[in-house]
C-alpha cells in the first residue's frame, strides 16, 4: 500500500473524522465525497502533514509522515488545491514546467525529455493555443487545467486534487476526469480527488471515500454506493438551506432531474407538493388540485406563477 491511515482522527482541536483506517495503492483512482464542512479538505491537508492528525498514524510509501520533510512529501505527492496562488508573469508553459523543479535546483535548465513531457501535457490538456499566455489572462477553467498540468509534470507517485473540475464546463470536466484515469493507468500513479460533481466523477473512480457522521466509509465505488442508498438522494448536497423538496414519485433518474431543477430555481418549502412521473407526464398534486406537465419548463413556469 502506498498510502495508509491507521486509527487516525482528523480535525483541529476536536475530530471531524474519527477512527480512519484506509489504504490506497499505486494505480488506483479514489473519489473523496461528502457534504461541505465534514472534513474533506482537512483530511487532504492531514495526509500532506499540513494539519497534524489528532491521533493515529499516516504512512506514505511505508514511511510515517511525521518523519518526512515538506520536500520529501512533495516528492511523493503532487497537489492541486481549488484555490491556488497565481504566480505573477508566468505563462501556461512556465507553470507546467514548474512541476519539474521539485527535482532540480531553481537555476537548473530543463533537459530535452523534460521539455518534451511538458509539451505533451500541454497538448493533452488542449492548452496549446494558450501556452505562451500569462496566467492572469486565462479563464478560470483553463487556469485550473494549467495547475493540473503542473501536478502531472511533477512525476510524483501520487496526485491529490481538491475539486479539480471546479470552474470547468461539462466537456472539460470529462476531459480532466478521463485524463486522471488514463494518467493513473499509463504512468502507474495513485490519484485521490474530491468533487462536488461526484455523480459524474464516480464513473472514473475505482474507489470512493465517503465522509459522513464523522466516519470515513471506503471501498469499491459501486460497493460504497450500494451500501449507502442516501447517495442516490440528491438532497445530500443542498444548495439552498431553506429549500425543502416536494415528495417525488419517479425513477431515480427522473427524480434527480426534477430535484436538481427545483433546487436551482427555488428557495421555498415545496413539501406540500407531490410530483408523480408516469408515461412521460409529470403529475402535480397540491391542495386537492391536479396539474399535468409534459416538460420541466412547464413545471418551472407554473411554480414561478404560483409561489
TrEMBL record:
<dbReference type="InterPro" id="IPR027417">
    <property type="entry name" value="P-loop_NTPase"/>
</dbReference>
<keyword id="KW-0813">Transport</keyword>
<dbReference type="GO" id="GO:0016887">
    <property type="term" value="F:ATP hydrolysis activity"/>
</dbReference>
<protein>
    <submittedName>
        <fullName>Probable siderophore transport system ATP-binding protein YusV</fullName>
    </submittedName>
</protein>
<dbReference type="GO" id="GO:0005524">
    <property type="term" value="F:ATP binding"/>
</dbReference>
<dbReference type="InterPro" id="IPR050153">
    <property type="entry name" value="Metal_Ion_Import_ABC"/>
</dbReference>
<feature type="domain" description="ABC transporter">
    <location>
        <begin position="1"/>
        <end position="238"/>
    </location>
</feature>
<keyword id="KW-0067">ATP-binding</keyword>
<dbReference type="InterPro" id="IPR003439">
    <property type="entry name" value="ABC_transporter-like_ATP-bd"/>
</dbReference>
<keyword id="KW-0547">Nucleotide-binding</keyword>
<dbReference type="InterPro" id="IPR003593">
    <property type="entry name" value="AAA+_ATPase"/>
</dbReference>
<dbReference type="Pfam" id="PF00005">
    <property type="entry name" value="ABC_tran"/>
</dbReference>
Amino acid at each position: 500500500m502506498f498510502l495508509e491511515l491507521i486509527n487516525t482522527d482528523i480535525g483541529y482541536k476536536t475530530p471531524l473524522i474519527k477512527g480512519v483506517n484506509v489504504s490506497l495503492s499505486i494505480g488506483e483512482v479514489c473519489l473523496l465525497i461528502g457534504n461541505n464542512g465534514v472534513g474533506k479538505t482537512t483530511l487532504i491537508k492531514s495526509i500532506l502533514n499540513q494539519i497534524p492528525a489528532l491521533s493515529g498514524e499516516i504512512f506514505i510509501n511505508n514511511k510515517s509522515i511525521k518523519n518526512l520533510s515538506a520536500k520529501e512529501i512533495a516528492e511523493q505527492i503532487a497537489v492541486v488545491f481549488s484555490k491556488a496562488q497565481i504566480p505573477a508573469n508566468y505563462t501556461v508553459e512556465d507553470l507546467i514546467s514548474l512541476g519539474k523543479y521539485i527535482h532540480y535546483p531553481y537555476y537548473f535548465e530543463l533537459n530535452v525529455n523534460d521539455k518534451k513531457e511538458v509539451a505533451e501535457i500541454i497538448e493533452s490538456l488542449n492548452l496549446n493555443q494558450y501556452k505562451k499566455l500569462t496566467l492572469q489572462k486565462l479563464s478560470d477553467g483553463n487556469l485550473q487545467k494549467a495547475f493540473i498540468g503542473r501536478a502531472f509534470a511533477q512525476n510524483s507517485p501520487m496526485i491529490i486534487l481538491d475539486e479539480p473540475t471546479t470552474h470547468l464546463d461539462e466537456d472539460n470536466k470529462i476531459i480532466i476526469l478521463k485524463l486522471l484515469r488514463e494518467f493513473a493507468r499509463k504512468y502507474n500513479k495513485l490519484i485521490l480527488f474530491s468533487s462536488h460533481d461526484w455523480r459524474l466523477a464516480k464513473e472514473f473512480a475505482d474507489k470512493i471515500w465517503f465522509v459522513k457522521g464523522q466516519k470515513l466509509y471506503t471501498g469499491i465505488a459501486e460497493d460504497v454506493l450500494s451500501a449507502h442508498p442516501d447517495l442516490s438522494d440528491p438532497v445530500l448536497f443542498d444548495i439552498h438551506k431553506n429549500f425543502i423538496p416536494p415528495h417525488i414519485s419517479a425513477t431515480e433518474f427522473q427524480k434527480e432531474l426534477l430535484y436538481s431543477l427545483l433546487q436551482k430555481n427555488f428557495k421555498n418549502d415545496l413539501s406540500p407538493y407531490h410530483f408523480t412521473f408516469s408515461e412521460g407526464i409529470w403529475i402535480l398534486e397540491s391542495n386537492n388540485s391536479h396539474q399535468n406537465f409534459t416538460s420541466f419548463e412547464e413545471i418551472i413556469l407554473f411554480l414561478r406563477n404560483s409561489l
